[in-house]
Amino acid sequence: MAEGGYATPSLWLSDGWATVEAEGWAAPGYWRKHDGAWHVLTLGGLAPVDPDAPVSHVSYYEADAFARWAGKHLPTEMEWEVAARNNLIDDAFGVVWQWTRSAYLPYPGYRAAVGALGEYNGKFMVNQMVLRGSSLATPAGHARLSYRNFFYPPARWQFSGLRLVEYVG
Questions:
Q1: What is the chain written as a DSSP string?
Q2: Which pTM was predicted?
Q3: Buried b (16+ CB within 10 A) or exposed e, 120-154
Q4: What is the pLDDT along the chain (169 residues), one digit of tens a residue?
Q5: CA separation (Å) from 5 to 27, 30, 37?
Q6: How far is it, in rounded angstroms, from Cα 45 to Cα 160?
Q7: Taking Cα atoms as reference points, which of 129, 124, 51, 131 lies closest to residue 84?
Q8: Is the CA virtual torsion 22, 26, 31, 35 positive or negative?
């Protein structure tokens, strides 16, 4: 925030920057400046931002811009799952959904189920990005390693955050 990421177009995907300008974003969702300090609207009311807590209510665009600022990138869905399966991710579940840089597309060989479930999945497999893990507000049956959540890139209402990947070598 102190380095002006929300005012630096070079950090943003073009659609993300257009959203920042159109929506007037200057901070993550539910953040407010109060008496010169950043606060966040929580389930318990307004509280000072905890610099050690995962950021929540950020869009894919914000997550990607932060990754660029940090000199890293968001994991692909596959990278996230491999890391989670190998216990390389702390707090993968129950804190915030984590954006990946993977589009919500069918897995190879996918066939839509007959009925409402197949219709539901098939209709949304366009223009959305995958989130993995789960948040503090996720129903227990959806908090599993194989579950794929998905939202449009500007969505920031969900308890969504990010993980960063850095290639070494």
A1: -TT-GGG-GGGS-HHHHHHHHHHT--SSTTEEEETTEEEEEETTEEEE--TTSPP-S--HHHHHHHHHHHT-BPPPHHHHHHHHHTT--TT-SSB-EEEEEEE--PPTT--PPSSHHHHHHHHH-SS-EEEEE-BTTS-GGG-STT--EEE-TT--SSSEE---B----
A2: 0.92
A3: ebeeeeeebbbbbbbbeebeeeeeeeeeebbbebb
A4: 889 999 999 999 999 999 999 999 999 999 999 999 999 999 999 999 999 999 999 999 999 999 999 999 999 999 999 999 999 998 999 999 999 999 999 888 888 778 777 676 677 788 999 999 999 999 988 899 989 999 999 999 899 999 999 877 6
A5: 9, 17, 17
A6: 19
A7: 131
A8: negative
d(CA 67, CA 120): 31
Length of the chain: 169
β-bridge pairing 160-161 and 97-103: parallel
Give me the helix-helix angle, 14-23 and 60-70, nearest 10°: 120
Contact in structure between 80 and 98 (CB atoms under 8 Å): yes
